[in-house]
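Run log // design_07
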């Protein structure tokens, strides 16, 4: 299991304007940026987490209905039937 060490950069509203490149570099390094205004924390900018692409067979939905005996067409027929036909 990978251990992710997350560090936090602190920046003020003024830093957002004048040190934007430093803030973007911190985000590139997977650092969160805590934004403060008059000494009070207003928010946190989080770096984007890239999701790993799953193969279709690894998706949780795959094989979910493998124990059902009905064919796909029969299942669709049941889903499309009117409420009173059930």
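design_07 sequence
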């Amino acid at each position: 299991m990978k251990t992710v060490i997350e560090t936090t950069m602190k920046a003020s509203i003024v830093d957002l304007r004048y040190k934007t490149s430093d803030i973007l570099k911190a985000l590139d390094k997977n650092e969160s940026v805590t934004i403060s205004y008059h000494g009070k924390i207003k928010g946190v900018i989080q770096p984007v987490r890239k999701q790993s692409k799953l193969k279709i067979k690894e998706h949780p939905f795959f094989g979910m209905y493998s124990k059902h005996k009905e064919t796909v067409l029969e299942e669709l027929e049941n889903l499309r039937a009117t409420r009173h036909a059930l």
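The chain has two domains: 8-45, 56-85.
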